[in-house]
Amino acid sequence: MTKMAVIGFGLIGGSMALSWKQARLVDEVIACGHREESLKLAKEMGAADSWTTSIPEAVKDADIVVVAVPVQAMEKVFSDLADYLKPDAVVTDVGSTRMTVIEAARKGLKEKFCQYAPGHPIAGGELPGVAYATKDLFNDKWVISTPTDEMDPEKVKFIEDAWTKAGAKIKVMSPELHDAIFASVSHLPHVLAYALVDMISKEKYAKEKLGMAGAGFRDFTRIAASSPAMWRDICLSNRTAISKELKRYRQGLEELQEAIENSDAQKLEACFENAMKNRRGLVFSASKQDLGKDDGRSKSH
Fold first, then answer.
1. Which SS3 state, helix, strand or coil, does residue 244 take?
2. pTM of the prediction?
């Protein structure tokens, strides 16, 4: 019987438990976290078979350990679970950044780092919490595997194969490429959405402005309803790459502002035309393309 412990039982951890159970990859799931109400809900909705607030209790008999806490909290969790891992257990995670999370695993797991196999599922939703977990969240979605030389290839392959059986698609790339790509296409958009809503909410007539917001504004800012704590940690974890993207974006905005102030219709239309073509073409065919060319490898109940 295969037992999986999920530490941090929110939207992603809960959905992973549901999808892996549905695919019969695991026979038993134990939910672990600090919010008892969420853990009880996880059991009620069938995502978990039991729950505990104790990491040692969750991990001691687990064959698979999933760390699904905010990225800034991962090193402590890795450290807390290391002494209780079974010798043949595999540890994975679902963090949105790679370089700092892998380093956190290296520091926290110490000599047991060889039992770690990283993973980042490219899926989610703007509403956090296990209440919104679904068994099909990862269907036909990318999961990014970022193995390094110190990792056990068999454990890495085990996690990759499991995700595939659960309905996801695997893409292998280096941690560095991962963080550069997702700073651009995931982290930056979240920062911009948060910043826009925050700015307008502090302005005069904010209530009227937000009340009149149409579909365009709602589509653009949908992700600003995501977990602030999670995205705070992601920004701090991938701050170098995100800062580079913000500088490039700021430069682009300044060029657009100059074009508007100078009534430069040609420059404006050229920018909008290029964006339209790429949005209609490349984005919609992304699922058929590679993401890159880099293939570097308590209480208990």
1. helix
2. 0.87
